[in-house]
Amino acid sequence: MLGSTHGTLTTDSRRARVIACGEQPSPAVHGRPAEAGDLDVSGRPLHADVPGLDRFFRPESVAVIGASDAEGRPNTGITRQLLAWAERVGARLHPVHPTRRSVFGIPCSPSVADLPEQVDLAVLLVSDPLPLIEELGAAKVKFAVAFASGFAETGEEGAAAQARLAESVERSGIRLLGPNTNLNAFERFREDLDGPAIALITQSGHQGRPVFALQELGIRLSHWAPTGNEADLETADFVSYFAEQPGIGAIACYIEGLKDGRSFLLAADRAARRGVPVVAVKVGRTETGARTAASHTGKLTGADQVVDAAMRQYGVIRVDTLDELQDTAALLARARAPRADGVVVYSISGGTGAHVADLAAEAGLRLPVLSEARQAELHQWIPGYLNVANPVDNGGHPVGDWRGRKIIDAILDDPEVGVLICPVTGPFPPLSDKLVRDLVDAAEHTDKLVCVVWGSPVGTEAAYRETLLGSSRVATFRTVGNCIAAVRAHLDHRRFVRGYRSPFDEAPRTPSPSFRKAQALMRPGQQLSEHAAKQLLRAYGIRVPREQLVTSAAAAVRAAGLVGYPVVMKASGARIAHKTDLGLVKVGLTSASQVRDAYRELTDIARYEGIPLDGVLVCQMVEAGVETVVGVCHDRLFGPTVTVGLGGVLVEVLRDAAVRVPPFGEEQARDMLSELRGRALLNGVRGRPPADVDALVEVVLRVQRMALELGDAIAELDINPLMVLPRGQGAVALDALAVCR
Predict the structure, then answer these.
(1) Is the peptide bond before 27 cis (omega within 30 degrees of 0)?
(2) Transmembrane stretches, by residue range (predicted)?
(3) Is 717 helix (H, G, I), strand (E, B) or coil?
């Protein structure tokens, strides 16, 4: 074990440690919501702008450029669909074509400049939209849609063309959907459905079809935004907009790549503040998926672990499949806030109930044991030899008469029960028909969530098609797995929303005194030596060992006497990354002769390897503690990220680490620790005392402050090991590596 301390802090008070370090906890809490125009300490926005998309989805006037009514032409079918859509939304449609006098009997303008009125939306049925952008801007067109492909999805040349298109759009002042998009925004949405709606965002239009089909099951959809290559309008814009719209119960997304990680988090923050669930399939969990996504939309997918953590931070529910997206979004859109988080499994088969209860418990749902009084009540209608503690097994026969409804009402009346899950493994008329009718009736008279899993592979039964799907109060599923995942997402999201405090409200707006000290230590484009990296940590109040940098054997002996034996000696230089691998660390030196010999050996190795040194560090040795790692690295999408995990060699062997995207608060820092598989080591195992978790959390927050303030100036920071001492004694950074950009 390496390192030493400047002295041991004996207080267990987090505040006392903060004062002792001379800095405030990170990030600073400002106590007011972020507003438009607010910037964080690195100059990035703290508030999501909400684009005014009303006139995109409900325009008063539409221009179709390249309109056609010639049979057999692709543009003819598109024009026909746009005509029908314009009629539904009450918009005036103006065809534009240089050689046609009319299209489908409507007078045709030869160019954008000749349109009879200013239009809200222009649909571009041309192979190259770029030449039209300037004309559209001059005509004060608000929105445009470009279907053309051949841009960033095709490679470098296409990406360059898309960049030119994006620059032209920005200059023109219009907002563009696409390129490489489709007609999904102009689909026919059913208007005979009520209840909260799902708003849909997809980068690949076909992937939204299963969600769009939910309308056939009685679930309302309000919007569909097919974002395509996102040269301008992106997923984040639509999340921000949909989060503000009344009547939207959930936002469902199919995301191949994020255009800008920060924009997405700001949009997710807006949805979280308003309690609107965002459910997302995000492609790129594997290298294969990431490559495929990049070739399709030309987006950066980002490191998947960072994407996953960032989504969790802001309450975005990530699912893996389209059927999960469908089921989870539908439940979250329609379910009321839960009265309790207890789940009861109720079935007509003991085997089915036990199986589903096992899966639910494994997924983290809480299955409370019903009280003895409640069980006694249920046994009035259910034979005494059957289990009614949870899961509840009715044996089948009580379902067929008046007892069935009594049982359901008694379960839902329990104050610990917030969700009832009833798996119907297969149709078994008349019992299954009577069961679902009772469940539907009971759901109409309770504010608790009733879920039914209709397990029949057929799906044509009247009990399913008419009774279950005809109910707006029962959540119906076809698989147990999707039901359990959706229920968990529902309960987790409600808990998240209740306790949500926007990280952007707490982000520091102005640099700390530490930042000014750190700036003087940065060396652009260089890696800092261990000694210099530790000075950077000191600037932010992070404890480092008592140590001295020496340049002679005699000075090393004097330093060891001051530090106190036993000591550790390490070569220090800007080009050394892994000292142990090169033999540049000597541990447990207990005498002056050992120190002299170690100095000569370290400098000889460095000379032989051609490694320049700024000296040799002489440090006091510390052994009692848990080795952890805390660091900063840059993600392509989200910028600086903070990682914490088990340190030493364990970080490479076990890869047991958690990551967050700044800004975040103390609660998120503690959540990071709870995600570690080796979390028990911090609690104290095999007779070891509990580690000072508060001190570790404080270091994580201070490192986050560094990430926020230094931003792009620091490419990488690695504190490994950070020795977390027994409770009340703090944490010490025994080694550090820092790379400047």
Answers:
(1) yes
(2) none
(3) strand
Name, in order, each residue with C-beta under 8 angstroms of 396's C-beta and a sequence gap of 6 or more: 348, 349, 431
Rounded average pLDDT over 92-114:
96
Residue 109 is classified by DSSP as B
Q: How many Cα atoms occupy the beta-carbon half-sphere of 549 within 13 Å?
A: 13
Residue 588, pLDDT score: 94
* 7 pLDDT higher than 80: no
Cβ-contact 555, 618 below 8 angstroms: no
Please, which residues have CB within 8 angstroms of residue 432's CB and are 6 or more apart in sequence? 348, 424, 426, 463
**pLDDT of 23 above 90:** no
Distance, in Å, from the CA atom of 532 to the CA atom of 49, rounded to the nearest integer, reads 41
Which has more confidence, 375 or 38? 375
Contacts of 710 (CB under 8 A, 6+ apart): 515, 518, 522, 640
Torsion of CA 589, 594, 600, 601, to 10 degrees: -60
Give the mean model confidence (pLDDT) for residues 566-592. Answer: 90
Q: What is the C-alpha to C-alpha distance for residues 182 and 226, in angstroms, rounded to an integer? A: 7
Residue 2 scores a pLDDT above 90 = no
Euclidean distance between CA atoms 301 and 257, whole angstroms: 5
697-738 confidence digits (pLDDT tens): 999 999 999 999 998 899 899 998 999 999 999 999 999 999
What digits encode the pLDDT tens for the residues 336-356?
Answer: 999 899 999 999 999 999 999
Opening angle at CA 552, ends 549 and 554, nearest 5: 105
Q: Could you tell me the CA-to-CA distances from 515 to 520, 534, 538, 702 in Å, in that order?
A: 9, 15, 11, 11
Residue type, 421: I
How far is it, in rounded angstroms, from Cα 147 to Cα 180?
5
Residue 100: is its pLDDT beyond 80? yes
150: closest CA among 134, 164, 170?
A: 164
Chain mean position to CA 249: 19
Report the C-alpha gap between 550 and 567 in whole angstroms: 14
Cα gap 96→225, rounded to integer Å: 24
Q: Is the pLDDT of residue 289 over 60?
A: no
DSSP codes of every residue in 360-377: HHHTT-B-PPPPHHHHHH
Residue 84: pLDDT band with limits 50, 70, 90: very high
Tell me how far apart the alpha carbons of residues 94 and 60 are, in angstroms, rounded to a whole number. 11
Instruction: Compute the average pLDDT of residues 364-377.
Output: 97
Determine the Cα–Cα distance for residues 122 and 64; give it in Å rounded to an integer. Answer: 6
Strand spans (E) along 76-120: 92-96, 102-103, 106-107
CB-based contact 279:253 (threshold 8 Å)? yes
Q: What is the pLDDT of residue 537?
A: 97
Rounded Cα–Cα distance for residues 684 and 624 (Å): 12
Q: Using DSSP bridges, classify how beta strands 615-620 and 61-65 pair: parallel, antiparallel or unpaired.
A: unpaired
Determine the angle formed by the axes of helices 693-710 and 666-674, rounding to 10 degrees.
120
Under DSSP, is residue 278 helix (H, G, I), strand (E, B) or coil? strand
Max intra-chain CA distance, the chain? 101
The residue count of the chain comes to 741
Q: What is the pLDDT of residue 287?
A: 59
**Residue for token digits 């680490």?**
657
pLDDT at 380: 96
**Closest Cα partner for 617 from 706, 733, 523?**
733
Determine if the pTM surpasses 0.85: yes
**pLDDT above 80: residue 1:** no
> What is the strand order of the sheet 92-96 is part of?
92-96, 61-65, 121-124, 143-146, 175-177
130-138 helix and 156-172 helix, angle to the nearest 10 degrees: 10
